[in-house]
Specification:
Blueprint lengths: L43 H5 L2 H19 L10
The chain binds zinc ion (ZN).
Amino acid sequence: MDLSRMPKGKPSVALPLCLNCAEYVRRVDAPCPHCGHDTTVPGGRYKDDGFYARDALERLLTVMEQATTRTPRKTKAED
Ligand SMILES: [Zn+2]
């Protein structure tokens, strides 16, 4: 994976990106007005230009952060 090709910045939280052409869309449950594909299926420019990889990396970092900050549960023996 070429990390230098990954998109910079963060996408808008108000408008989701089409997971095919990486253009902003109003609703994720309708065909994309830009490319006509299902906006919820990753492919096309979204994968080729690194948006998919960036999202996967952000999800991984979030899970890793949650795992390191989570307080372990007490076992019954510790109560
Ligand atoms: Zn699209």
